[in-house]
Design the sequence.
């Protein structure tokens, strides 16, 4: 992931104390290889090696994608959004702001994929794309909350105002999740459809292993993408700063020389 | 109570008094927002056949949707009065306690919204022919739900205020967050109207939890929002 602008080697650039126009480093390259290998092996296990389930048949294979996506997006993503937001309000540094922004964006994508895979799974197993199941409802509300967070980030060009307000929104949204969880559980609690319990100890050994391997793989994948998304956001910030500095320098140069 | 706490309540009263005085003089809520709520009640009657009793059955949901939509307008109005003549900057320069400003603005919105709900209750009684039974649950649920709505609304109103996209941003931010209030309010009302108040009290518990959480969050987090120019 290097930009075409980078002509010199990273080492020479670093020697000149210049910031790199790349989101890559030795650590993330290694992390990326590991994440992709883990992802590929998880897919192989989920789609080919693990056995079909007794009642659901092959539809169960979607679960090895669906649940890890939900956990990585919902727990890791929203958790890091909350951490970044609190960090920003406390320290007021760009690092925390961009951490929250990057985590929220990935959480949005993972949540969208959770809803998609859930619908595709629901059609053969429940006979419908959408069921007003508490977890589905919670995920749908979470999805809209994350869209709102993103909308806030695009609504202002002032980086400080954007960071401050986004942090408050991130924190409020994260605090709302347990309340929404509680309300939808009660709301649909009386006639909840049976959901597969992945932690069921009677689960076949191979299925259990596939399940946990997928969870770990998707978490690593999420973190790898997060590092890159963060670095892109960081470079964007630098670019905006530099463009401003250059514009000021140009205007200064145009001004008539005073004795 | 220490001196800071007392000052916070005094600031809250000042801000609430200011906002209510503006409302009393401009009568925007009375002349525009209350009629809007009435129009929404009419629209629901057009959407659901009034002869088949759907309206009576759906009253709890329709009532709270109307309240939610009206909350958006009341909150927008609450910040529109600050936008003119740099009211927001003046509010910051007065040195009032941010938590006090939050409580004051929320209290003024609460008063307007509570009066509107009384009007709406009369509206559904007359137009939808819904008999209002189980009034203790109705009153407690309304008070708790309204507190939660105004606390969240005051926060999101401040978050959207001053941005070019504020009118469209506020509903997108606010409505999903108050999903628990919509669910809790509707269920509590449905239980009360069915005569099963035990179930209703349980939902009141959820509404009170939401209200307490958002009032506390608002008092904590309002300060960074006042920093904006």
Sequence:
């Amino acid at each position: 992931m290097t930009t075409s602008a980078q002509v010199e080697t990273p080492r020479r650039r670093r020697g000149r104390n210049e910031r790199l126009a790349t989101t890559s480093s030795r650590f993330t390259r290694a992390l990326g290889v590991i994440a992709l290998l883990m992802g590929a092996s998880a897919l192989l296990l989920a789609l080919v090696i693990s056995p079909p389930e007794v009642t659901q048949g092959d539809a169960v294979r979607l679960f090895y994608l669906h649940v890890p996506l939900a956990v990585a997006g919902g727990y890791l993503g929203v958790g890091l959004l909350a951490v970044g937001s609190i960090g920003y309000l406390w320290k007021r540094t760009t690092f925390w702001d961009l951490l929250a922004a990057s985590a929220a964006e990935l959480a949005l994508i993972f949540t969208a994929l959770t809803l998609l895979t859930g619908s595709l799974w629901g059609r053969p197993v429940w006979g419908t794309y959408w069921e007003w199941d508490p977890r589905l409802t919670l995920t749908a509300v979470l999805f809209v909350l994350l869209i709102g967070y993103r909308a806030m980030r695009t609504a202002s060009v002032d980086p400080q105002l954007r960071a401050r307000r986004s942090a408050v929104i991130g924190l409020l949204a994260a605090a709302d999740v347990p309340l929404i969880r509680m309300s939808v559980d009660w709301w649909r609690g009386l006639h909840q459809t049976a959901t597969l319990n992945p932690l069921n100890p009677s689960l076949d050994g191979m299925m259990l292993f596939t399940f946990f391997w997928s969870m770990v793989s998707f978490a690593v994948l999420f973190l790898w993408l997060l590092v890159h998304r963060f670095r892109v956001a960081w470079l964007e910030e630098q670019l905006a700063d530099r463009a401003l500095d250059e514009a000021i320098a140009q205007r200064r140069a145009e001004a008539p020389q005073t004795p | 109570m220490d001196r800071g706490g007392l000052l916070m309540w005094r600031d809250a009263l000042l801000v609430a008094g200011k906002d209510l005085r503006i409302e009393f003089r401009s009568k925007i809520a009375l002349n525009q927002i209350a009629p809007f709520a009435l129009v929404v009640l009419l629209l629901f009657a057009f959407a659901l056949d009034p002869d088949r009793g759907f309206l009576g059955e759906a009253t709890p949901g329709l009532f709270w949707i109307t309240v939610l939509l009206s909350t958006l307008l009341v909150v927008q109005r609450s910040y529109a009065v600050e936008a003119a003549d740099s009211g927001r900057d003046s509010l910051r320069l007065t040195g009032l306690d941010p938590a006090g400003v939050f409580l004051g603005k929320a209290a003024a919105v609460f008063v307007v919204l509570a009066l509107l709900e009384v009007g709406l209750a009369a509206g559904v009684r007359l137009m939808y022919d819904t008999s209002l039974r189980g009034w203790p649950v109705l009153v407690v649920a309304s008070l708790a739900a309204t507190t939660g709505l105004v606390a969240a609304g005051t926060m999101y109103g401040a978050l959207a205020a001053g941005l070019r996209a504020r009118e469209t941003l506020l509903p997108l931010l606010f409505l999903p967050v108050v999903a628990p209030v919509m669910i809790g309010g509707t269920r509590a009302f449905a239980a009360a109207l069915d005569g099963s108040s035990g179930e209703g009290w349980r939902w009141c518990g959820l509404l009170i939890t939401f209200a307490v959480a958002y009032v506390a969050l608002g008092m904590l987090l309002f300060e960074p929002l006042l920093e904006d120019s």
